[in-house]
Every structure is written in structure tokens, then in C-alpha cells.
Design a protein that fits this description.
Blueprint (H helix, E strand, L loop, with lengths): L18 H10 L3 H14 L3 E3 L25 E2 L23 H5 L51 H12 L3 H12 L11 H8 L3 H11 L12 H11 L5 H7 L2 H5 L3 H8 L3 H12 L21 E5 L5 E5 L7 E3 L1 H9 L6 H38 L1 H6 L9 H8 L3 H7 L4 E4 L2 E4 L7 E2 L8 E2 H13 L9 H10 L6 H10 L5 H12 L5
Parallel strand pairs: 3-6
Antiparallel strand pairs: 1-5, 2-4, 3-4, 6-7, 8-9
Helix pairs in contact: 1-14, 4-5, 5-7, 14-16, 16-17, 19-20
Amino acid sequence: MALSANLFLRQSQSLVMTPQLMQSIQLLQMTHIELMQFISQEIERNPLLEMVADDGDLGGDSADPTDRPPPISAETHHANDDAPAAPSLDSDWYEENGNTSLNDRLDANFDNAFSDEGSAVRPDAPELLSQWKSMPGNSGETGEGFDLDDFVAGQISLRDHLNQQIPFALSNDADRLIAAILVDHLDEAGYLRADLDEVSSRLGRDRDAIEQVLETLQTLEPAGVFARTLSECLAIQLRQRDRYDPAMAGLVENLELLAKRDFNTLKKICGVDEEDLIDMLAEIRKLNPKPGSNFEHSATESVTPDIVVRTDPLGGWKVELNPDALPRVLVNQNYMAAVGRQGGTKDSGDQAFMSECLQSANWLTRSLDQRAKTIMKVAVEIVRQQSAFLEQGVDHLRPLNLKIVADAIKMHESTVSRVTTNKYMMTPRGLFELKYFFSVSIASAEGGDTHSAEAVRHRIRMMIAQESTEAVLSDDDIVCTLKSSGVDLARRTVAKYRESMNIPSSVQRRREKRAMAKVPAI
């Protein structure tokens, strides 16, 4: 058989993950803060990108007020809408205009404006001007006024607070050196996480000397600092309150029995009756198990909802994109045209750079537009599925999974998963993460509709909260009660849900309720 070269035309499909496609997928799962950081980086490297500020002004100083882009308006959607729309991002803004002065653009005349410069302020003490720049009449050597940051109180840390007390507690330099090393081994809660034998070998000092310094340090404020265990922390605080007697020492040394609510054994160990034990428990509750936590100032992170759900007066629900979480990025076509007119792109390298910037800017605006549309589609479907929850509460939360939403909006489950990650929805019932509306299904005891696991956990929590001292519900009792209401749940599942909500067992709850029932009302 002779061999010969032939030409064939064949059509085939293949999945190609381009860098831009991968970046678009990453944009879906970005939080609001991460998205703003990404856009800021793109604006720095791309001269054609501009961001509209919250007040409607463009990021650039050369923007004309008459050429500002219209604000992005999230259209209103009802929960029963079939095809939700999404906000449109206009990439062509800013028509070409001639250079005008500030007075012409604002139609204002500043010639007759009063001057902000008043008469010179006479200094109160001229001889102190060089030392106090905030004094009236002193503008500083550089002509600057006082700095407001100089008057802002700084946040003191736990180590700084202790280092201020150590010189008054220890007079020996060697002891202060030991104290400085022990301070460096404190954790955020104020506990000492150091091996005294290791510290002793490093410094060449006896362990007794290290322990003596540690004993002095445990008298510093806040009370309970430099403790090595929870029992020692509570004991230090009780000593400073002059409440550390033998009975209290027995209670502090058996905290594991207190966690189990084994009050009968504690009464025997402490040698007290039930009334004294209740008073001791009240004293324990007043103590701080983490004395150093008050000095840890972590930045408060606010959550910006991506979706806002409101009640529609005509019936149903209004689903809107939150404009505060929607970045407004625009392409400056006027800058591209101006560069071309001035002959700045005659070089082939410059032309390639500007073309790449234009392509990247258009891709980013389209990706943000697609991101907003996808989030809106998922949110509308979630509201449609969980309409009963919004109307009647957690008891009516339906079981929902990613596949149900993905099939309804004709998307892949992975896309829905990325959209619901770190995205929040503001509803009349509060702020919820989109993941909250997805829960596993629990079969019905009567063969009816299934129940949501979150709704079942809420029922268990409410049943335990309403139980009385004489009728504490066991896990078997909870199973029978749920089965009578149509929820088929195993006992081990009830125990798992109860432990996940940090609810003690029925034996521990019964002991605690009986003890608290004997506490006199305040």
C-alpha cells in the first residue's frame, strides 16, 4: 500500500483555560476588599482605567462634571422573576471636550471671594514657640500647622503595660532582665508559655531565682497575668481579692468537675454545703480567664453586604445589588484618543502597549459586569427558594444544595459555589452569608417534605431553652418530640447537633438548673 500525504478538515471542541478566563473565575470568589485591592492594582498599571468615587467624582482630576458616567443602578428584581437582569457598566464615557478653566466649568467667579487668611494670631508665650508647635501663633519653621495625630492617644499593649510596672516591682537589674525575658514569653491571653528550666539554663540562674521573680510578676496588673494554667490564673485573682481560702482552693483545683457540673463531688471536696458552693461559683464567674485579652486591639472588620433584599409593597421580595459593594470602573476612551492625536503612539512599542491596555481595560469592565450578573442570578434564585424563611423565620428554612440553584440558573455547581463564598445578603431578618441558606436535607418521619438541618438545630436549641428544672430533656426525649412533629432523626445525630451548639448533656444541664434554681433572685 502506497503512502501519500492528504489534507483533512476536522472540527473539534476543547477547553482552553486562558489567563483571562482564570482571572474571571477568581473574580467571582473575591470578597469586596479583595476585589477593590485587585482593581486598585489594575488602575496603577493601566492608564486607561478610571474608578468613580462614592460621591460620583472620577478618580482623575481632569474629569469634566458634564461628562461623568451615570451611576450604576441595580435594577429591582422580584423573587419570582424568571430571568434577572443585572446592572450595566458603560465603558465609553467622557466625550471629547476642549480645555476649559475651572471658572468656566463650574460657572463661578472667585475674584470677589473673601480670603481665608485672617489677621496674624498673637502667640501667648513667644519664648515657647520652638517647643510647642500647636500654640496659637506658631506655624512651625516649615510653615505647617499643628498635626492632629500628635494629640491622638496611642493604644498600649500588654507588654508595654507590664514594662511600666516592672521597675517599681523589681529593683535588681538581674531580676529585671529575667522579667523582660518572661514578658516576651506571654501569649495574647496573658499566660506564660515558657519553660522555667530552659530560662534558667539560658541565664545561668537558679530555678528558685526565676520562680521568685515570677511570683513577683504575678502580682502585677492585670490580675491573673503570668499564670501558666487556668487554675493558677483564677487562684492569682482570688488571692488579690482575699478570697482564696481552702474551700476555694479545692474548687479551683478541680475545674474539670465544675465543667461536668458534678456539684455533689465538689461539695465533698470543698467541704461546703450547696449554698456556699453556689456563692463560690458566683465568685468564679466574676473572674477573667484571659487577663491579657483587654490589651489586644484588633481592627474591626465591617461586612459589606453584596445583596440587599427588601419587602415589595406589591408582594414578594425586591432583590438588589448593593451599590456600595459594586465597583464602578470605566475606560477612559478620551485619553486614548488624545494620545493618538498628539502622536504619542507613533512608535510600534507604544502602540502595542496602548492596545494591550485598552484590551485589558475592556476585559476588566466586562468581567465585572458578568460578575454582577452572576451574583444577581444566584441571589434571586436563593430568595425564591427561601421565601418562606424570609417570611416566617428559621423554622421554615428549606433544604437547599448547590445543584438545585445551578440547574435553575443554567450554570455549573462550581460557579455557584464561588459566588456564594464570602458573599453576604442583607435581609429583613438580618445579615447572612449566602452559604447559610444551603443545608443538608433531613427525611420526614411521615414521608412528607424534608426538613433543613439548620431548622432542626434551631428547634433543638429552642426546646432545650424552654425546658424546666423538673423536666430536663434527654437526647431520647428530643428524638421522640422531633418525630412527633415529623422529623426523623437518630439519637446520635441529635447529640452531634447539641455538641456543635455547645449545649451540655441532660445530666449536666439538670445539675446546673437545680443549682441555679436555689440562687436567690436579685
